[in-house]
Amino acid sequence: MFKSLLSFFKGDKKGDKPTEKPAEIKRPIVKQYSPIQVNLKKGETYYYCTCGKSSKQPFCDGSHEGTQFKPMAFTAEKDEAAYLCACKQTKNPPYCDGSHKKAIVAQKAPIAVELKKGETYYYCTCGRSSNQPFCNGAHEGTTFKPMAFTAEKDETAYLCACKQTKNPPYCDGSHKNL
Length: 178
Prior knowledge:
The chain is mostly beta strands. The chain has one helix at 2-10; strands spanning 36-40, 45-48, 72-75, 80-84, 111-115, 120-123, 147-150, 155-159. The protein has one helix and eight strands, in the order αββββββββ. The longest helix has 9 residues, at 2-10.
C-alpha cells in the first residue's frame, strides 16, 4: 500500500503524474480533538456518531449512510453531564478516555523511504497523516507538531510508523512490543 501512496504523492517517472489513486482510508473523521460535554438523562437512549460526519456531534444525524460506519446506541444510566469522544479514537465509546492526546499507531512496521542529503523532511508525530511517515497537516487542532529533520546523507531509511520510537523519526523496533 505504501508504494501506491508514494507513487500517488510523488508521481510516476514518465510524466510525474499520479499512477493510481491511494486506497480509501477507512478511519472516522475527527471533528475536534477534545471531548464534547452533553447532559444525559437516565433511561434515555442516544445514538453516538462513529463516522465523524454528523453535523450534530457527538450524536448521529444519518451522515454515515453509504459507509461502513453505524451509530452506537447507548442508554444513560443516570442523569449526568458526560464528556463524549469527538476524536473517535476512544477505547471506551462513547465516553472520552483522553485518546485525543495520544499518537495513533499508523502501522506496526517501519516505512522504508529514500532520503536525499541536505533535504528537509517533516515527520508525522501524530499518526493521523495519510502520507505516512510524513506530515500532511492532519495534526491541525491537536497538540502534535511535525518533526523537521534534515537528511545527513543519501540513504534508504526506515522511519517509525508506530510513533513509539525513542529515536524519532527512525524505527528502533518499538512496534514489536505493541
